[in-house]
Design brief:
The chain is α/β, with parallel strands linked by helices. Helix content is about 30%, strand content about 25%. It contains 11 helices and 20 strands. A 7-stranded mixed sheet has the order 8-7-16-17-18-15-19, with helices on both faces. A hairpin with a 6-residue loop joins strand 11 and strand 12. The longest helix has 26 residues. The radius of gyration is 22 Å and the shape is globular. The relative contact order is 0.18.
């Protein structure tokens, strides 16, 4: 019996995860990516002869599926992960301070660290402690995280020095535009699950290497060739229509693309049993890359308080990547302005950069870094009304916020959905 052939549309982490799982399950896998680069929003390219990521993508200890995926690709040695959660927090107002997880049950593992945390006074420390103890009680329906913090008496200092530095980047949105349930998921899953869950990690190689390792396992990869539509009549074979009019007939399809593109591919998403795909709000991220003459700054990464640069990462001695999440105000600014601002911010907060000179800079922009659904509209899961069509993407309903972990989980869920669908179709034909 011939192998079943599946088209995976989208070469981001979600599509790659689905493709690898399906290939391992015995399918013939063809992947279509409209860009010339694989990896989607987690990719790399060359700037001035240096291969750089389009931004600093970190993972946490609780990102178990992402870490497993990297290890399955044979790249586990490229994962750098803290032994225990620790974060350096810098401010232009004075010396930096660290938050460290202690070997104690949660939330005590964090509260002990607050005793020596310089950026919070005693009143603000008590406010944060109260919120950590109350976090397991949940939130009111429709409540924003900002309203939840207000209800639990979190003042300006607690927000400035704890909630905003960690939760705006984690959710890529201002706190008044994030549902309390989504933020509390992050709080419980990472910060309140013990010191290991919130450990911060990153890949020591450019992210495009992950995508290349995944693509090397597939039967065929087609780059820079957009798919313009997908036709799945009943549970029969599907037709993938490419730009230029070429058609590819396959047994099944995984559509691992953002919501606007998915709506265009399907034409009438509701006919496939999907919830409305219009109105999803893209949330941008900007990353500013700085090359300077001072060498090592003495840390791998740090948060910056009261700064448009929320986090700064040392990618190599003399090379910093500055991350600006929820970057609606920065996404359209000229590169030279972004570079100048980021350099001023990090020099003001990092003492070792005093007197340093900027050699060159660059900015990378991801206008659609994450997606938020309209109020009251559910995110779709992997299954559709067609047994041989599955949906994937970090923005779908995985139980996780729009992250790399969600992308991997969605891809694997889509592969499982197709496997179940193939079984149903085979039974119907027998």
């Amino acid at each position: 019996m011939a192998r079943q052939r599946v088209a995976v549309i989208g070469g981001g982490l979600a599509g790659l995860a689905a493709a690898v799982d399906l290939k391992e399950a015995g399918w013939e896998v063809v992947l279509f990516e409209r860009s010339r680069l694989l990896g989607g929003r987690a990719t790399s390219f060359t700037v001035g002869g240096v291969e750089v990521d389009n931004g600093q993508h970190v993972f946490l200890g609780c990102f178990t599926e992402f870490q497993d995926f990297v290890r399955r690709l044979g790249l586990g040695h490229t994962l750098r992960l803290q032994d225990r959660f620790e974060a350096l927090v810098l401010s232009r107002r004075g010396p930096g301070s660290r938050l460290r997880a202690a070997p104690l049950p949660p939330p005590w593992h964090l509260l002990v660290s607050f005793l020596s945390y310089r950026h919070l006074g005693w009143r603000a420390k008590a406010q944060v402690a109260r919120a950590l103890f109350r976090a397991r009680r949940g939130a009111s329906p429709g409540e924003t995280f900002d309203a939840w913090l207000e209800r639990l008496g979190q003042g300006a200092e607690a927000r400035r020095a704890f909630w905003e530095p960690f939760f705006v980047p984690a959710l890529n949105a201002p706190l008044d535009r994030v549902g309390a349930g989504e933020a509390l998921f992050v709080l419980r899953t990472a910060f309140l699950a013990g010191g290991e869950a919130a450990r911060i990690g990153y890949c020591t190689v450019p992210l495009a290497r992950l995508a290349a390792a995944a693509a090397a396992r597939l039967d065929r990869v087609v780059l820079a060739r957009p798919v313009v539509s997908v036709e799945v009549p009943g549970d029969e074979r599907a037709v993938v229509v490419l730009a230029g009019g070429d058609q590819v007939t396959v047994d099944a399809v995984v559509a691992a693309v953002p919501p606007p593109q998915l709506a265009r591919l399907l034409g009438r998403p509701e006919s496939y049993g999907l919830p409305p795909l219009g109105g999803y709000a893209p949330r941008p991220i900007v990353d500013v890359h700085l090359w300077h003459d001072r060498g090592s700054v003495g840390f791998d990464f740090a948060a910056l308080l009261e700064s448009p640069v929320q986090w700064v990462f040392q990618k190599a001695p003399g090379y910093l990547c500055c991350s600006l999440s929820a970057a609606d105000r920065s996404i359209s600014r000229p590169v030279d302005e972004l570079v100048r601002e980021a350099w001023d911010e990090v020099r003001a907060a990092v003492p070792s950069l005093g007197g340093a000179s900027l050699l060159r800079g660059w900015a990378t922009r991801t206008p659609e870094a994450t997606y938020a659904p309209p109020d009251g509209v559910p995110r779709p899961g992997p299954a559709t009304a067609r047994a041989n069509l599955a949906v994937a993407g970090s923005w779908t309903d995985t139980g996780w916020p729009d992250t790399m972990e969600s992308a991997i989980r969605s891809g694997r869920a889509a592969a499982r959905s197709l496997a179940r669908g193939a079984g149903r179709v085979a039974c119907a034909m027998s």
